[in-house]
Every structure is written in structure tokens, then in C-alpha cells.
What does this fold into?
Amino acid sequence: MEPRLVGPGPYRATRLWNEIIELFRAGMPLRKHRCRFKSYERCFKASEAVDCLHELLGSNQNFGPEVTRDQTVKLLKKFLKNHVIEDIKGRWGKEDFEDDGHLYRFPPSSPLKSYPKKPSCGKEVIKFPDWNEPKAGTSQEYIPVKSITMNSEMWYKRHSIAIGEVPACKLVFHRELTQTNIEEIWKSMTLSRLQKVLGLDSLDEVLDTKLVNSKHIVQNVYNVNKQGIVTLEDKSKELPHWILSAMKCLANWPSCSDLKQPTYSGFERDVFKTIVDYFGQMKEPLLPFHFFDIFVSVLGLLQKPSKAVEALQISCLLLPPENRKRLQLLVRMMARISLNQDLPPLSESVRTRTLIVQAFSRCILCSKDEIDLDELLASKLVSFLMDNYQEILSVPSALKSSIEDHVVHLQRVQFQKSYPEVYRVRFPTPETEAMLFPEKTKQKPPILMWALKKPFQPFHRTRSFRM
It folds into this structure.
């Protein structure tokens, strides 16, 4: 059985679980083993299972070579708990699998997981500003007019008003674009772009769009410093100064400008443990629980790096500003540590990069409900974040530009509809209009060859046609 790429879409974690079980059952060699003077047919040693599954995960493009042997053992523990495997006496249900010589076998059928039936979130139609909703406290004469389908009777009524047969109605103004409208435009266009990049017909199965806060998107785009880091309006949500100092220490090692106390042997390991403990005690990961499915779905695009980067760029815009800022600072520190040749090893047995990924994966991404593959999926996401953090955690310029152009267009249209006389006086020429409402220059269509020819001449009868 050949491994296949599990792309974006709903229930991706469940689809991956079933894929790995099928591949493991098909690829695990079974043979005769002896244990305590007794022979057992079609079984395997625990260490052989670790070897086989570790190789299988490392060569699978859904996971990759960064999967460690320790992670493989943890997955086999979950296999034993879920009765994917059992010991030679038929026992299962506990996570007591170890990388040793104990014998295991497959049950007659390893249970594949069924796709969960999620409660319907309800399709949230992409909303643009509704000009027909009056402002709170607006007087009756300024209530916006609802659009009416034109028919012969309506045309007659309007024509009668124009020629004076019916008294003219009062002039009714459309309301202008509000900040709330602009925020909703940002939300709707951002989600539309995310859906397109993921190649999905709908986001309903991977994201409850009602939980997406439009204010968070706007704040993440515009409230940033020169380094692109989010600036928070509520300073109480900032990281403590002592944890920032610890992160700067490791990120800039050996130049620890914030630390005044003398260092000692093993100092950097204690600083690292302090940072790990701080982020490990959070009740919810930096990518909130209700965004778990959308980020797991994005992992299906990693074979197309540019698409994956754009999808993660947009997905990270949906985060609460305090979560986005912490993610920016943490991933930037992780990337710098993994590339810092001057930093002493943080572990005797594990490479620094592997240690960092394992230490922080769960505080960045995990599921509220226990998902058997969440550790492997989180490790995959964190590794990709570290390698591409400068692009992923920046504001997508193309999306920002397109939304801003759309907002300017709507503002111009609404002003023109609401105040036609003022509009004509203020912008009597296209040049003055373009000064306030700049638009992208459009290329003129090429001149068609037939346009250069003489206009069509009516047919004239000549003598040559006479009989």
C-alpha cells in the first residue's frame, strides 16, 4: 500500500490516523516468535514495531523525517490503548507499551475511526455592509431606502414624479461606511481568501466563522511596530518583563544585555526551562482550541510551500492580538536558538532543534479533546513555522491592499450616492476625483484592427449588377 498525501479539508486528523493504521498493518513484518518456551505465530517484537513505524512516518510526506523515535513510541502507546495492536495474550487498553522485546500482534481488525458528527455551526453568509439598516437613533427622514426591483408600474410612478404629475418625495440619504462595516469587510474578505487558498467549497467543517472576531483581524494588521510585532492596547496582557528578558537572553546568546547577574555553567539550560515552564502552564495554546481544525487543515498544503505560507499568514491574522504577539516572540526566539552556533547544547541526548520543537509544540497547537496524532501534527506545524516565521507572522500585503482598495471604492460610491450635489461640486473633473479616491491604473485595451478601417458604407447598386 502506497502512502498518499492527505490534503486540506475536514477531519484531516482522523483521516491521517486511519491512513497510518492501514500502512502499519500492511508494512509490519509478522513472523514466529518464542516466549517462555512457547511459540507464537504472526507477531512482532515491540522494538521491531518501533523500527517499522518510525521508518514509515519518516518517509511519509504527511509527517516527514523530523519524527523522533520517542514520538513513535508514544504513538504505539496510543495504538495499544485503542486496540490497534494487542499483546500476545490479547490484552490492550493501557498505554504501557515500551521499546523492548515484548511481543505484540494485530487483532483480527484494527478499528478505524469514524468521522465525528460535529454540531452544525450554521453557515455564516459572507456579509458586506447593509445600507438598508438605519443607524440607532436616526430620525425618520434619514432612514435608508430599501432597494426595489424595477418594473413597469414602478417606472411609471417615477416617471410621473419627474414630469410633475405626483408630488416629489423627500430626499433620503444613504448612511456612510462605519468602522464596524469596515471590520466586517475585513473579516469576510479574509475568510474568502483563506477558503480559496485551501481549495475548499466551504469553511464550515474546519472553522466556526462566528468565533472569528473582526476587530482582532484589523488590530493585527494595523497595530504593529517597526518589526511587525503586534502592539497591544491592553498592557496587562503583555508578557511579564522577566520572561521577555529570559527569551532575549537565549535569542541573543551570548549577548545578554538584559541580565545583570553573573552566569554559571548550565545557566542557559535553566533559562530555557524557565521559558518552557511559563508557556507550558497556559490553559489554552497560542492557537486557540476552536482554530485547531483550520491549522491542521493547512498542514495538508505543506507540499506547496508558497500556498502553505499564505494560508498560515491569513490564519494567524484571526488570532487574538495577545496570542499573535506571544506567538511572534516565541517562534522568533525558537528560530534564533536553533540557528545559534554559539549557544551551548540544551540537552546531552537531543539535538537543540528537536528539543525546542518538542518543548513548545503543545503550547502552540493542541486539541481540546484528545486527538491521538495532535503531537505529531503540532511538531510538523511548529517546524514549518520556525523555518518560515518571518513571512508567516507578517501581514499579507496582497490581501491588505485588495481589502483597502475595496473599502475606498465603497466609500466613494456611498459618498456619491449620499451627496450627489456635493460630489459634483467637489469633484467636477476626473482629476480631482482621482486625488481623493486613487485607483490602480488600468491598461488601455489594444486598438482593434477593424476600428482603423473606414466605417461601413451602405450598399449602392452599380451597373455591374444590372442584367
